[in-house]
Design brief:
226 residues, mainly alpha, Urease accessory protein UreF, 66% helix
Length: 226
Amino acid sequence: MSDAPDAQSLLQLIWLASPALPVGGFSYSEGVEAAVEWAGIDSETRAIEWLSDQLHLSFARGDLAAFAQAVAAWRTNDMPRIRELNGWVMATRESAEFFLQTEQMGRSFVEWLKLHHSDTAQVFAGLPASYPIAFAFAASRTGATVHDGCLAFAFGWAENMVAAAVKAVPLGQSAGQRILARLANEIPAAVERAMALGDDERQAFAPLLAVLSARHETQYSRLFRS
């Protein structure tokens, strides 16, 4: 039997990863806007290098790994494990802006989920879910594999980051599509790496990114909330 998701599961994953989902992802650049001013992201090439490094060194080893583990935990209704993973995500936010992003997007995602899953309010009672944990809950309800859920989560991240780079550098739409194509080619390897990480191997150590995020809080002119 094929492990490929059925049509309905695939469509649900595409929907969850869509930038049109009303969770506010478009309003965050995750440090890219600050990197344009202070880290020399001034071209398509530099933007590709930056986002590729962020994918492999930060996102895959942190949020994506936690997301993969959370999907499995949601499917067994392991709430202690969910709270542990959610606490880890929250604790790894290295700036006020990064904390605001995952808290706000998680809260907005839960509000949207209430329209589609009648037990959402009960499930998340007393759990201020971070964005990866809320997304994992939705992905766990699609019937898709953890692997395919990770692909969707990563591609949604990539789309938002490319959109931020296009606006902040700025770049043209064709350049944005070339960057997205590069990230799409690299996402499968990032997903495999993330899914192989255990609790002691997850990490969120990106010092320059953290510094840039903190500097962004007082950046003179900006488009994004982080």
